[in-house]
């Protein structure tokens, strides 16, 4: 006979359980998990398939245990298409042993036997029994600690017990008036998901089944407890202590001395109610991590795409050529394992070639909206990845750049995009002049400025970067600019020639601090710093340029993104050129 046990988080299940059900609380709470009850199926042992391979590490693995032959799918599940992920194929069954102990002794025994209990990730080693709770609700209208509202009779009895000189201390209606109900929206969502088959299926996590010994079954309790208790022996409130998988299917004589001592103490006192039982632990698709699922899905030896960029609710993948035949499956796993934060999975299908720096993206899973909101440095940015550029991986570099600004600075952001640097700098500096060639980016920039209430400190321009530099420094604003940011790594160095002669019409003897320029660029050379420095010298037509160079990140094998910081040389700023005035 098989008695079923349930692994679940602290919140109460929204569907009925069998009388012999146990629930387990994971150490680290999974994201909104509900676990279904399934019958134990005949299984295929896969441990033998990996016997010749290297020894597997401790803990659960998709290469261990057995594969259930029956499907764990819902009865109304539709036929899977060729790109659909068969979640039932990731169920694994493990044989373990457990101690059935009285609830009152569980805490002491857990601390005493901790070194011999199951120590698997996200699986607690204590299962909570619900047999007595089922009876408690049936007879008394409640069960201790189950979160149920008391029946009317018991509620009046509790009020009578708590009555004193101040009146009724705990009064339900007064409590409802004095403060709003906590977690109301969450309870409604949980109830809705629990009533839907799809919600139950989506949240199943793991199931424990206890294999009962027919000879140890007690008297028929159907007359007292109902048909669900046919042939069961009443044990009261109990817990399961799951032993380490090393002790699976072992008799009492083969267990460690600490476990034997527990049984001996109970026999000596004559009140032993501890039992050694055999269990089956089934781990479902939702238990396994993203990397474990992908490693099992992809061909052996293929690199697992375990990292991706997150932009709001969008996961941005950069899949290799070898991953493209499996792109739908990879996206489905990424979406499942990162909900609810991730709602859309996209893949970049081409390099950035256009002047607006927009990417060609393919939606692989989730909703098709590419408009999202990103929170960075406490500010909100509205972004449409289909029409503007955004790179979350540069958040640390942007923070480093901002740390060098002061409240007396005036910033000129030549290639601002939707404003991650310009808007963040406006919280620190005196004034910001922000420009971008892409009209869609300028539209989102203006929206983000209003969204963050910084419209008084930022002036927006929509023009070519070279023309913007020359027109801005030809105006009366030129002498106030202290910092220039040029974050266009692919082409920014080529725009440095616009700074030659920007003060050509002003007297050379004037004492004024020249702006500090921060320019970004890519380099594939063996010495990227030297290569980028040479390009800066060529653009400025000046050899003696003191540059402070740093590597930002490795964007591809052998391709570095660098940031060069230097003060604009006086000889460059005051160079005489007739072409400059003609262009203005």
Automatic annotation (TrEMBL):
Location within or outside the cell: Mitochondrion matrix; Nucleus; Cytoplasm
EC number from the UniProt entry: 2.1.1.228
InterPro entries: MeTrfase_TRM5/TYW2, SAM-dependent_MTases_sf, TRM5-TYW2-like_MTfase, TRM5/TYW2-like_N, tRNA_Gua_MeTrfase_euk
Residues annotated as domain SAM-dependent methyltransferase TRM5/TYW2-type: 308-570
BP term (GO), one: mitochondrial tRNA methylation
Keyword Cell wall biogenesis/degradation assigned: no
Keyword check for Electron transport: no
Gene Ontology cellular component terms for the protein in this record: cytoplasm; mitochondrial matrix; nucleus
Keywords carried by this UniProt record: Cytoplasm, Methyltransferase, Mitochondrion, Nucleus, S-adenosyl-L-methionine, Transferase, tRNA processing
One Pfam family, short name: TYW2_N_2
Functional note: Specifically methylates the N1 position of guanosine-37 in various cytoplasmic and mitochondrial tRNAs. Methylation is not dependent on the nature of the nucleoside 5' of the target nucleoside. This is the first step in the biosynthesis of wybutosine (yW), a modified base adjacent to the anticodon of tRNAs and required for accurate decoding.
Protein name per UniProt: tRNA (guanine(37)-N1)-methyltransferase
Species per Swiss-Prot/TrEMBL record: Eucalyptus grandis (Flooded gum)
């Amino acid at each position: 006979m098989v008695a079923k046990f349930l692994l679940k988080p602290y919140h109460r299940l929204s569907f009925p359980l069998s009388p012999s059900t146990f629930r387990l609380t994971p150490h680290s709470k999974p994201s909104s998990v509900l676990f279904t009850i399934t019958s134990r199926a005949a299984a295929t042992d896969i441990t033998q398939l990996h016997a010749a391979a290297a020894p597997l590490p401790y803990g659960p693995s998709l290469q261990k245990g057995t594969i259930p032959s029956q499907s764990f799918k819902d009865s109304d599940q539709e036929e899977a298409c060729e790109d659909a992920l068969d979640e039932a194929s990731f169920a694994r069954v493990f044989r373990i042993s457990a101690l059935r102990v009285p609830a009152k002794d569980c805490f002491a025994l857990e601390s005493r036997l901790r070194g011999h209990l199951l120590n698997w990730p996200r699986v607690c080693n204590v299962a909570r029994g619900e047999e007595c709770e089922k009876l408690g609700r049936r007879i008394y209208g409640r069960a201790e600690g189950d979160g149920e509202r008391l029946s009317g009779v018991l509620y009046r009895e509790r009020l009578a017990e708590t009555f004193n000189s101040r009146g009724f201390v705990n009064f339900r209606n007064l409590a409802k008036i004095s403060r709003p109900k906590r977690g109301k929206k969450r309870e409604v969502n949980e109830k809705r998901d629990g009533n839907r088959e799809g919600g139950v299926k989506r949240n199943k996590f793991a199931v424990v089944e206890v294999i009962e010994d027919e000879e140890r079954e007690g008297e028929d309790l159907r007359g007292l407890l109902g048909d669900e208790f046919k042939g069961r022996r009443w044990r009261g409130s109990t817990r399961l202590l799951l032993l380490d998988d090393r002790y699976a299917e072992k008799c009492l004589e083969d267990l460690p001395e600490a476990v034997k001592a527990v049984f001996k103490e109970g026999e000596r006192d004559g009140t032993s109610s501890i039992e050694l039982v055999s269990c089956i632990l089934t781990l479902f698709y939702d238990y396994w991590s993203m990397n474990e699922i992908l490693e099992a899905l992809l061909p052996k030896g293929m690199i697992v795409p375990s990292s991706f960029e997150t932009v709001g609710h969008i996961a941005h993948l950069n899949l290799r050529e070898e991953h493209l035949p499996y792109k739908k499956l990879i996206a489905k796993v990424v979406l499942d394992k990162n909900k609810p934060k991730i709602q859309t999975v996209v893949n970049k299908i081409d390099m950035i070639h256009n002047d607006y720096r927009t990417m060609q993206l393919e939606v692989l899973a989730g909703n098709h909206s590419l408009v999202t909101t990103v929170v960075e440095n406490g500010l909100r940015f509205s972004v449409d990845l289909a029409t503007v550029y955004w790179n979350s991986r540069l958040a640390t570099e942007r923070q480093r750049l901002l740390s060098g600004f002061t409240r007396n600075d005036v910033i000129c952001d030549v290639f601002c995009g939707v404003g991650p640097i310009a808007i963040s700098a406006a919280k620190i500096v005196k004034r910001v002049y922000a420009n971008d060639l892409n009209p869609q980016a300028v539209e989102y920039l203006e929206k983000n400025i209003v969204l963050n209430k910084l419209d008084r400190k930022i002036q927006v321009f929509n023009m070519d970067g070279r023309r913007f530099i020359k027109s801005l420094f030809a105006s009366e604003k030129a002498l106030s600019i202290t910092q220039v940011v040029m974050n266009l790594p692919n082409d920014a160095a080529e725009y440095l020639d616009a700074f030659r002669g920007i003060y050509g019409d002003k007297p050379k003897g004037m004492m004024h601090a020249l702006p500090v320029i921060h320019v970004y660029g890519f380099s594939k050379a063996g010495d990227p710093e030297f290569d980028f420095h040479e390009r800066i010298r060529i653009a400025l037509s000046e050899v003696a340029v003191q540059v402070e160079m740093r590597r930002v990140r490795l964007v591809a094998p052998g391709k570095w993104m660098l940031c060069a910081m230097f003060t604009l040389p006086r000889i460059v700023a005051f160079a005489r050129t007739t072409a400059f005035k003609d262009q203005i």
